[in-house]
Amino acid sequence: MIQENKVFKCTGVCTSCSGCAISEMAQSAGSIKERMPVYPEGFAADKEQAGLGVAFDLGTTTVAGILWDLKEGRQLSVSAEVNPQIKYGRDVISRILSCGRKGENVEELRRCVIGCMNGIIDDLCEKAKRGRKEVSAVTVCGNTVMSHIFAGYSPDGLAMAPFQPAYEGMLDMCGRASGLNIPDDVRVVLLPNIAGHVGGDVTAGIIASGIFDMEGLTIFADLGTNGEIVLVNRGEGFACSTAAGPAFEGNATGLKGSEIIDSIAGMLDSGCIDVTGRLVMRGREGDSLITQKDIRDIQLAKGAIRAGIEMLLKKAGKEIADIDRVIIAGAFGNCISREGAVRIGLIPPMPLEKIFSAGNAAGAGAAMAMVNADKMKLAEAVPSLIEHVELAEEPDFQSVYLGAMNFSAPLIPIELDMDECRERAENLFIERSGLTADCEKNERMRRDALAFRERIANRIRPKGGYYYYERFQLDKQVLSVKGVELRCAAFERMNPEAIEGVYVYAVTAGDFLPENMTIMEQLYGDIWGTAFTDAVREMIVTKIGDACREENVKFAASDSFAPGFYGMDPLEMRKIPLLINFEDLGMELKESGVIVPVKSCVGIVFKVNDKYEPVGNACKPCRGSRMTCRLCSLK
Fold it and tell me: What's the pLDDT tens digit per position in 206-250?
């Protein structure tokens, strides 16, 4: 900015001039938190107290306050301000460092935020036309760093492993000790943190969302400057924290984090960004606001959050398909569109109707604990009900995180009719095992085979999904889709003008084979696994075919789908997970190109027009078997 003939360089951390993207981001977050909090249906205050109550959501970026009339049991006003501590740094690590290694500067940062909170109290009372002296109760929630600073504790222990907090449990203090401009004898309650970087704001969010009262498996994700994730399933709870970094804060051109996510989702669909996150083109006008750095920031954030969800599912012994709902909270989380979040892989692929926004859950939960004794008891108990998962100590986290950073297309799951799937699998089993002949030996073997199937029936979990790519390029032996180049001799015999779209699919029968099998059981298990995998493949190709027929177009599907399909070099299989997310089905691709579970497969279906001619099996010799390099007849 220019003032009195002097030029000042913007540091990006102040809020005094309100002329930068950082300030706009903070103001936007504040306006979101000022919206009326959402309370669960049927929630009611106790109405046993007199005076006014103030609930604070003490965020890294914004501070929000909610005023209640305790006697009447109703909310009066809401107010939010940018946290003035932002001048010490935009994230919690910066705040920890600003407090000093021995906490010598904690009081300075504490006075800074206390002043902001006192201003909010004045604003709340002015809006409600009430007085500060009527305040008789205050409840505060915040992330662990902000909670430490408010309570006057050094957050130094949170800077490095094992991320040990300076205090545990819920803290009580009087008005005088709190520093707030309220009567001295007012009880001020600081809601308990769950673990090192899972704070009291998450405790409040758990209360507001009511996830302990919900049936099935619920994911609660608080997406802000930091990201906290909670999984609750039948009373069992797990929680972790992730570093979202600057991704949700917006970029230098003023786009909000939510707008960046939606923009990246659109650029992925248009081919401007490849699956690795590389910015391939900037659009037709050449003036895209999204930079390569923006994309990398989003990849780091969404990879960490998605990996956190995956690790909590693993801890609970569950899979993505078991998720009944995802609840998104936090200032930035509430701005993110469900479509964009699923498209970039921030949230696992699932029907959009399973994804909900919780509004300012932290503020609502703090208010609920303040005005309802049962909710306050629950808040005190939450840390004992949730098992904290330290992601850095999980051996698989790094590989899951790296895999989650790519922009693999989210799987479109196929809902299987299990009765139809079993019937198809049984028919395929009987046909392939040679048990169709009518003789006593075959009848005995058939009984044994069916008995073995019943033994493993509860372990077989057939699943399948696909993704459709409308943009691609076919040049001789190379099929390019979203920056991924698949090479196959069979492609050279295909007319590029005949191909209108590419479906990539994956199916699995799951990891179902028990230990200590006899030789015959191993044989039965192998054939049953292949039969179920083939049955799912038939069903998914049928579904794709139905979609093509609805558009009055034709399709051509691969005849085989193991390594070497379409005559493709097995090593080309390593590229398939870049086009479709294997993890959504519990599948994994080894370095050798082998898929696990073993009874899993992938394939390609082309949407074609009248110019298409079947390739047959006369392609040039390649490393794939001739039995696996033909395309089936036009359908």
Answer: 999 999 999 999 999 998 777 899 999 988 999 999 877 666 666
- The owner of tokens 């949230």 is 347
Name residue 9's amino acid.
Answer: K
Q: From residue 500, how far is each of 135, 348, 474, 557 by CA, in Å?
A: 67, 28, 11, 14
What φ, ψ does residue 283 adopt, rounded to 5°? 90, 175
What does 47-114 look like in DSSP terms, one character per residue? ----SEEEEEEE-SSEEEEEEEETTTTEEEEEEEEE-GGGGG-SSHHHHHHHH-TTSTTHHHHHHHHH
Burial class from Cβ neighbours inside 10 Å (0-12, 13-18, 19+) for residue 296 reads middle
* Amino acid in the structure at residue 86: I
The listed range with the strongest mean pLDDT (185-194, 399-408, 513-522) is 185-194
Q: Which residues pair with 611 in a beta bridge?
A: none
d(CA 449, CA 455): 10
Q: How far apart are CA 150 and CA 612, in angstroms?
A: 69
User: Whole-angstrom Cα distance, residue 384 to residue 200?
Assistant: 13
CA distance 62 to 174: 24
3-state secondary structure 257-288: HHHHHHHHHHHHHHCCECCCCCECCCCCCCCC
Single-letter residue type at 324:
D
Kind and range of the H or E element at 604? strand 600-608
- Rounded to 5°, angle at Cα 578 from 576 and 580: 70
Query: Would you call 591 exposed, middle or buried from its count of C-beta atoms within 10 A (0-12, 13-18, 19+)?
Result: exposed
SS3 per-residue string spanning 137-158: EEEEEECHHHHHHHHCCCCHHH
Residue with tokens 């130094």: 156
Which stretch of DSSP H or E encloses residue 430? helix 418-432
- Residue 252 Cα to chain centre, angstroms: 25
CA–CA separation, 510 vs 617, rounded Å? Answer: 31
User: Tens digit of pLDDT for each residue in 599-633?
Assistant: 888 888 888 888 888 765 544 444 444 444 444 33
What is the value of pTM for the model shown? 0.71
| Cα–Cα dist 331/336, whole Å | 10
pLDDT in tens, 86-139: 999 888 889 999 998 878 899 999 999 999 999 999 999 999 999 999 999 999
Q: Is the pLDDT of residue 384 over 80?
A: yes
